[in-house]
Design goal:
This protein is an alpha/beta fold and 325 residues long. It has helices spanning 31-46, 76-92, 110-121, 139-150, 167-180, 204-220, 238-247, 264-271, 285-299, 308-323; strands spanning 65-70, 98-102, 127-132, 156-159, 192-198, 226-230, 252-257.
């Protein structure tokens, strides 16, 4: 599916948004002075834009590198979508060094990205935050990421919590459902229901996270039942969840795609929808904001999160945040 018009600001090919510069507070004597001042300010802003309309790379800050960690997919649309998402992250935080690493299937792989960061930062000390573009806890967050971080000897590499569960994801899920045809009045309908389709994991914490996300989405939709279901590893499957909702008298059943990016699991889950199916979360602006929030949260911890224990402590903090959201 294509990105809707009101979300195009996250696309890298759109004209760049000009940053707002403060106006001089001194009084203006004439219209000519006002026009001159506006011209000067526009000139300053346009100096950050190339002739073809793309944004020039801003000078990097001294903050730790943000390494976004995607799973990887054989679906060509996944890499394109994660690239657009990270462009949105860079737009929100100009000057921050933002890199991409994959766990498998796509390049660059995470060890290669970390090797490149190490080569560039060796002289001043390697500092980075791994932000998993994953929606819950599981083997990758608890084991793969800490192992990759530990392989960079002497580095200060922190591991942020996974993206979900979080209220910003609810915002993105509701937006995607609305694009697919969900109406506000459906939340009060006795015939409507939602299946929250997720990838699935044998780690029980992953299922706990999915159930929490389903509860948050149900609250936002006005109390309509939301049943988590999975494309692999555990039950119920999406078709089984649809049957369960149908048995409860729910016949207008939507599938909310709880996948960060397009891929085989997302496509199979959408195909099982008896009514409407939402697109994956993708490059929704709420995800870009959440990536930066996870990055900032990881920097507030007092110890490196390159071990499963520290990563779990970071996650405990975000659970407290959810409880008060």
């Amino acid at each position: 599916m294509t990105e809707p018009a009101h979300l195009r600001e996250s696309l890298p090919l759109d004209p760049p948004r000009l940053e707002r510069a403060p106006l001089d507070a001194s009084p203006l004597d004439s219209t000519a002075q006002l026009l001159s001042r506006i011209t000067d300010q526009l000139g300053t802003q346009l100096s950050h834009v190339t002739l073809n309309g793309s944004r020039r790379r801003m000078p990097q800050t001294t903050r730790p590198t943000l390494v976004a960690v995607a799973h990887g997919s054989r679906d060509a649309g996944a890499l394109h979508t994660v690239t657009r998402l990270l462009e949105g992250v860079r737009d929100l935080r100009p000057g921050l060094d933002v890199r991409l690493g994959h766990i498998e299937l796509n390049e660059p792989l995470l060890p290669d990205t970390l090797a490149a960061v190490e080569a560039e930062q060796r002289a001043q000390g390697v500092r980075a935050v791994l932000v998993p573009l994953l929606l819950g806890r599981g083997h990758h967050v608890k084991h793969d990421l800490p192992q990759c971080a530990a392989a960079v000897v002497g580095a200060d590499i922190r591991i942020a919590a996974p993206l979900g569960p979080h209220p910003l994801l609810v915002e993105a899920l509701c937006s995607r459902l609305a694009e697919a045809g969900w109406r506000p009045e459906d939340g009060a309908s006795r015939s409507a229901g939602v299946v929250l389709a997720a990838a699935g994991s044998r780690d029980p914490d992953s299922a706990t996270d999915a159930r929490r996300m389903a509860d948050l989405l149900s609250e936002r939709l006005g109390g309509v039942p939301v049943v988590p279901a999975y494309a692999s590893a555990v039950s119920p499957t999406v078709p089984a969840a649809v049957r369960a909702l149908t048995a409860r008298g729910r016949h207008r059943i939507a599938v909310a795609s709880y996948f960060a990016f397009p891929g085989q699991f997302a496509a199979a889950s959408a195909a099982a929808a008896p009514w409407i199916a939402a697109a994956p979360l993708g490059a929704h602006p709420a995800l870009a904001r959440l990536v930066l929030q996870r990055y900032d949260d990881a920097l507030t911890t007092t110890t490196s999160a390159s071990t499963p224990t520290a990563a779990s402590a970071s996650y405990a903090g975000q659970r407290r945040e959810l409880a008060t959201a």
